[in-house]
Amino acid sequence: MAQFEEVSQKSALHPKPAGLVLQYGTAGFRTNAKNLDHVMFRMGLLATLRSKNTKATIGVMVTASHNPEEDNGVKLIDPMGEMVAMVWEGYATQLANAEQDDLLPALKDIIKREAINMTQEANVFVGRDTRSSGACLSQAVLDGVSTLDGHSKDYGLVTTPQLHYMVCCQNTQGQYGEATVEGYYRKLSQAFIRLTKNVPNRTDDQKHLCVDGANGIGALKVREMERHLERELQISLFNDGSSGKLNHQCGADFVKVQQKAPTGVEMTVGERCCSFDGDADRIVYYYSSSAGRFHLLDGDKIATLISTFLKELLTQAGLDLKMAVVQTAYANGSSTQYLENTMKVIMKCTKTGVKHLHHAAQEFDIGVYFESNGHGTVLFSKTAEQKIKQLAEDSTSSDEKKRAALLLQNTINVINQTVGDSISDMLLIEAILAIKGMTVQQWDAIYSDLPNRQLKVRVSNPRVIDTTDAERRAVSPAGLQEAIDSLVKKYRQARSFVRPSGTEDVVRVYAEAETQESADALAHEVSLAVYRLAGGVGDEPKPLH
Ligand SMILES: CC(=O)N[C@H]1[C@@H](OP(=O)(O)O)O[C@H](CO)[C@@H](O)[C@@H]1O
Ligand SMILES: [Mg+2]
């Protein structure tokens, strides 16, 4: 077929460095931008196949999120705006790693396995973050799409969640919203204004927020959105990309991992601040106290704020909807304890990686999911949305019920349900704080985090560690879990687990305990156990103090 001849010819223009092997990991492909041209071309081919296969528009986002500027990467987006199905992650890896001469057979293999009708029309949406390599790399994606006669729309510079949103809007014939960046701003900001404008006595302080844009796409987009917010939210934007380097000493990942304020943000004592990551799908909040102490409000605190707010509204509305909070093993033990025991919320724990949380959240009427690092959103089932709508429109319901239903409706509209979204999460959090008349300090005081520590251990093959129970227990290598169990017993309120990272060639160690000293000591001791039992390389892990 002519299409296949095209593939042979065009792929020669996007040659694969021989021997290079990459894996479609937790967050798609990610590596130094120099090694990605062939991957992008091939993901253009694959997205086209996926589009033919689903008879829907597919998204391709060129980004490496919180990684350094020199890196880049690519993620595929499925029809409803969710991460691409697992089997297709496997196809992506196959296609990316096929040597030049094996590309066509690899492509034909996928076509055969999925019984793809090659005459079916295909549509692909492409977007990219602000990395300098992005323009060229997204052009390679577009080349791939046109090689298989797919149609494409290049959204240019957008945040990752904006592209997810566009894909979902397109495939729901506009039911979810209009598939344009302006449409996105309008939907979210109108909902935000409806939520906040009737809140009495909101002071300028309450309307003001410092945003660290990580010198990335989120900064550009928040600035574009600002004029839609009618000064209901007044943003001081830092790290807007005009001088600083992307993600360098700033952004949500830096703040969460380092547990300190980013550079480039002028914070005054007690002021509410937040950081986005490099592709604006994560957010964390923070402030500094008068004693100079840094206070982080991470994904767990965000999930707590949102789920508490929703639960109150459901009670006021008298709606019997099943709500759950989905976390991973990295969630601070205090958050799980508080939500489960004090708030009586249904709690779920899944493996690391948003696709796992997203799927678990879909099983409830309302599923709030957040990774500790600040990636998360809220999902509402069709039933939940319908019941809320009915109540809001019911002329016989009480004022209190109606008010709650209207708040719930606008809450649904401010949320980007396709994926975690810094901008949408920020608007939701700001609206909740406004409605509840809550300061960031009061939010922080809902529960106190248990001191914790995360470490990395290098071993020759991290995959020798196999886990179960949502990664909370190790089943191999032999003796490791027993070693962890006996170390944990030495400390109060302690918990620890280990797992191979899905994005780095390391084993991650997590420990929490009553004091920071205990958490640090436990993390170190567990690291030593991993080093000794799982084939550590290099020097033995050293104590932290
Ligand atoms: C402990 C941690 O923060 N892990 C991160 C990290 O995964 P690892 O598999 O732990 O490398 O990157 C993922 C993708 O961005 C993110 O979903 C996840 O939360
Ligand atoms: Mg990200």
UniProtKB/TrEMBL annotation:
Domain Alpha-D-phosphohexomutase alpha/beta/alpha: 52-82, 119-167
SUPFAM superfamilies in alphabetical order: Phosphoglucomutase, C-terminal domain, Phosphoglucomutase, first 3 domains
Biological processes per GO annotation: carbohydrate metabolic process; hemopoiesis; UDP-N-acetylglucosamine biosynthetic process
Domain of life: Eukaryota
One Pfam family here: AMG1_III
Keyword Acetylation: yes
Cofactor: Mg(2+)
Reaction it catalyzes: N-acetyl-alpha-D-glucosamine 1-phosphate = N-acetyl-D-glucosamine 6-phosphate
EC number(s) per entry: 5.4.2.3
Active site (catalytic residues): 65
Residues annotated to bind substrate: 371-373, 499-503, 508
Key word Disulfide bond present: no
Keywords: Acetylation, Carbohydrate metabolism, Isomerase, Magnesium, Metal-binding, Phosphoprotein
Record note on cofactor: Binds 1 Mg(2+) ion per subunit.
Biological or metabolic pathway of the protein: Nucleotide-sugar biosynthesis; UDP-N-acetyl-alpha-D-glucosamine biosynthesis; N-acetyl-alpha-D-glucosamine 1-phosphate from alpha-D-glucosamine 6-phosphate (route I): step 2/2
Coiled-coil parts of chain: none
Alphabetized GO MF terms: magnesium ion binding; phosphoacetylglucosamine mutase activity
Domain spans labelled Phosphoacetylglucosamine mutase AMG1: 182-284, 298-437
Residues annotated as domain Alpha-D-phosphohexomutase C-terminal: 456-527
Positions that bind Mg(2+): 65, 277, 279, 281
UniProt function note: Catalyzes the conversion of GlcNAc-6-P into GlcNAc-1-P during the synthesis of uridine diphosphate/UDP-GlcNAc, a sugar nucleotide critical to multiple glycosylation pathways including protein N- and O-glycosylation.
Family label: Belongs to the phosphohexose mutase family.
The name this protein goes by in its record: Phosphoacetylglucosamine mutase
Provenance organism: Myripristis murdjan (pinecone soldierfish)
Gene: PGM3
